Amino acid sequence: MIRSREVRWSLVAGAIGIIFLFAAPQVFELFAIINLTTVLALAILALSLGLVWGYGGILCFGQTTFFGLGAYAYTIAAINIGETTGPIFIAIFVAAAFAAILGYFIFYGRVSDVYLAVITLTVTLIFYSLLRRTSGPEYKIGNALLGGFNGVTSPPLNVPGDPSNILFPEHVFYVAMAALILAYFFCVWLTRTHFGRVMVAIRENELRAELLGYDIRLYKLALFAIGGGIAGMAGVLFANGIGRVTPDIFNLYNTALTIIWVIVGGRGTLIGPILGAIALFYLISGLGTQATVNNNLVLGIVLIVFVLLVPRGIVPGVIGIWDRTQARSKLLRKEKRLRRRRTTRQPEPEAANDG
Amino acid sequence: MTGEIVLETRNLSRHFGGVVAVDRVNFTLWDNELRCLIGPNGAGKSTFFKCLTGQLSPSEGDVVIRDFHAGGRQPHEVSRLGVGIKTQVPNVFDGLSAEENIWLAARRWQSAKRAKVVTDQTIERLMLGDIRKDHVGVLAHGQRQWVELGMVVAAEPWLVLLDEPTAGMTQEEVVRTAELIREINETATIIVVEHDMQFIRMIANRVTVFHEGKILIEDSMDKVSQDKRVREVYLGHRQK
Questions:
Q1: Shortest Cα–Cα distance, B225 to chain A (Å)
Q2: Domain map of chain B by residue range?
Q3: ipTM for the whole complex
Q4: How far is B87 from chain A (nearest CA, A)?
Q5: Which of B96, B107, B148 comes nearest A194 by C-beta?
Q6: Residue-wise pLDDT tens digits, A192-211
Q7: How far is Cα A194 from Cα A209, in angstroms, rounded to an integer?
Q8: pLDDT, tens digit, for every residue of A125-167?
Q9: Most exposed: A185, A213, A319, A333, by fewest CB within 10 Å?
Q10: Which residue of B has its CA nearest to A199?
Q11: For residue A322, is it within any domain?
């Protein structure tokens, strides 16, 4: 029953997504559409962490590592190859492969949860520091200058097989929205497979999963790599939305932000992190237009409020309220029915007596 | 004893710092046995059990299950041999339903279709029908124990290792558990670690008594319960 409800809601979410996919370019101005592409990239990044953390129980504090690697790999490959279809796959592969290598040491070394968070955070900060120091002309991969803290200009996506035919920003938006919908349904599907159910089991109790014969190291590694690949794909879209990749992708602010998206949206759901990312992006950019309150202060308050008052996040919180009101109205209906039956039944014996 | 040896420990030791919890134990288990391990608190039963299941790796010596050297292996490798394991503190998936718990055990070794059938059969066999949709986290301790037993049974193991399967159960549940264990014994070899003597009397035919990390005596329940040394270690009397 819970399952079928999940399916219904994910289909509703998918339908809204598809309507938005076609309607947004008709409604919004170009600037908003370009902005949306960036937001969607961040939403996919949030989704990847929602999968890894919410379903696998792996608190990766450096999901931006794979996001940034995807963005850099795409940009560098696209500059060298001269088209962008291959680089998309290269970017996803690089991000997933790096996640797999990192994950191998973490999971096969049986690193505990806290250290996992510390290691992943450190790795992303290492990338940040390293790439900031690549400003000289000697730091280049093929034809691509890394450019230090200025970063590299990302070539925009082109039509597959036709490098001269570059996509317009609206079209990049279509690609990003379609990617989000596909990534979302891929994750929904994944969590419903045997693999996904074992991942949830591992999150619930590692020892029991092992005693049932599941090699939890391998399962975690696989999920971590899949999450890395999805984050890498988000990185490709981010590079397209911004038009440039810089080491700032790897900084502490961004990596903390991904965690906050998932906390605010709701862990253990897939739609929650997506909504969390979108909501906070617009909150922050809305605050950016005024100067009375500091952005980070507001972000901090949001985090504290959620951790203290809505610890499960928006989506699970709303589902909880919905369930309670549903249960109450069901109870009321039942009572009403009983009362009606009682009032209709009472005259019956009298009628029988009369007869 | 007759038949094939299915599990053996050779000079198995486990130290924790300077403490020797299991001290050069040579233990042999034959096919189709239902063996009980007993002993006072701190006798080394649970440490010994954890060495068998891969939860702890032995400091010295080896564990051999059929032809597989299990000493120092991972729990999933031991489980993969067809060994069903129930731990002392119930290890279940609290956030999932009883049904999902058992399905996860069945699905490890079976096709999707067969796993569903095995899950239904197990739920029926263990009379978990009333709680099949309930989250295991909210169930009573005894029920959680039964869900865990269900997971062991659903994997259809040939060797079953149970650590205090009746802890926290009511008298009625204990009786049912004893019945279930005898039933499992028809198709599987079993080791039960327990300290509920009443329960052991219900199921035991051969008992191994642990004391200070060593095997004190190994015999039938009658002989063991009459043994002077066993009484001493349990009741703390000194031989005069």
A1: 33
A2: 5-82+157-235, 89-140
A3: 0.88
A4: 9
A5: B107
A6: 999 999 999 999 999 999 99
A7: 13
A8: 999 999 999 988 888 888 888 988 899 999 999 999 888 889 9
A9: A333
A10: B104
A11: no
